[in-house]
């Protein structure tokens, strides 16, 4: 008996399925891009008008404050919303407390009060510039909240407590609505974005290492990659901090991310040192037969490692790679020994390359192990190496505080001179945006975008207020009247290109369009407020243009000076976690340069990057040498190494050709003393002495680079 044929789907069913699949395919990309933006707009509007409705129901004096809070807190992910909400509330509490204290200390003394406010704002803005993360937002809020409470209380100091309580209540209401909406309705978990960043970092670094080992990247392109990696390190730490506020993010996961970032920086620094050594060998091999011979032994080792990086770096594959590298090194040493005797400098070059390859293989194994633990969501017992710590050059911190304090005093003088009551808005807007933009590498661009948003909002807000909101007889027509304007601002703020314009449009509209419980439609007052608010942002723009314009985040002159200071600290700071702190701060400074330079750094910026990477190599060698000295016994070798550190610190403190030459000679003398101690040393000490020779070699070549500006090959005496 033959089996019956399978039933065929009807033509209608097949056609419907094909249409559905086609529609799903066509809309998939839209859902990942525009769809996500419109979901963000919908959530922002739900949070905004929920806060506004509750503010009306509770009879709050300024319902627009709750609405404005939700607009400011509208962020792409729930973790970012919760993080910013926490620091906004904290900053609001501190700012209100400061306002109460200042008004209580200086009642009926407006001049002294404004001086006190200027000092407070300067201090808070400096703190914001120092931290450069959501913690900095707390400092910003603490500064301008004090101004928002204290300035209206200048003529009526008895009202300051009521103003402070009302402000905290309204901001708290906006925070609750934003947190609930963004965490409950279509939540976007930031922890997922963090894992995508981790995966991209791992894949990008492995690909970069393979291309460098295969000689498919020029040194200039490698420097730009290091600059981007520095920005990635800062971005991962920022993302981790936001994910920390989400449910399910444990402290052990935080430690794993810290360890992942630390392992990445260690592997990146070792690989950079290896790459520079290989580049020096290639540059000199054309004119020196001995160098060509060493290069011929080192290049196959790098090629074999590059081939190994093409596979997935599982634990078994990593063990196989390290065993193969050990065998290759044994064979290369035997080949070098079997040939003619080489000069001491060439032997040091070979030994240094071998040690760096072994060290990089170990660093890579640690990095890959941590990555696989994160990717597979396995809890790993890791010692917390400390979080990535941003560090801003002191001159920029001071300049940010001075600029913000001066802005407050200047706008207060304008208020006194014009006798225009609406100038209070100018004081507030100028102070707010001088503080907010202080941590931006391009503050004038940020403030100009906000100013454009204000200018666009001026006619739109007027039309919305007097032609639409004025006709609303209850809350729901009010929502319909105001929704297009606020949705337009939220849509603009959801994309990176026009985010500043969207924020400006939303803030301006929230301040002017939203009615109060006792509504007054006054055209003259409305236009006066429009002009004063816009004038405040214009004053902030002019202050960044005129007052210390070169003292902005990521300015290459300040970063270059800070890099030298970090190299000095490597010679003298306490050793506990010094390597991690040094790595953090140098990478953070390079990240600041990257943010300020944009996608196409100019020649001057590239020079700062090269100098930073050279100082990074030098600093790591110095720190390792200091660790060796801390564990060594007294003797000629130890004394000579101490002399190297002393003269190198003197050179870094006051760079000159003479001090550099003295440090170079001390390195040569130390190399001779260390080699003299090798024959009588026991195996453990002999290993430390060989490591000291490798560190001296790195310091010597890095110092030559600093003195000449171009890579140099060490002389045989090294």
UniProtKB/TrEMBL annotation:
Gene Ontology annotations for the cellular component aspect, listed alphabetically: plasma membrane
Transmembrane segments: 38-56, 89-106, 112-130, 137-154, 160-186, 422-438, 450-469, 475-492, 499-519, 531-548
Gene Ontology molecular-function annotations: transmembrane transporter activity
The UniProt record lists the keyword Transmembrane: yes
Bilayer disposition of the protein: Multi-pass membrane protein
Pfam families linked to this entry: FUSC (PF04632)
Domain of life: Bacteria
Swiss-Prot/TrEMBL keywords: Cell membrane, Membrane, Transmembrane, Transmembrane helix, Transport
Name the record gives this protein: FUSC family protein
Native organism taxonomy: Bacteria, Pseudomonadati, Pseudomonadota, Betaproteobacteria, Burkholderiales
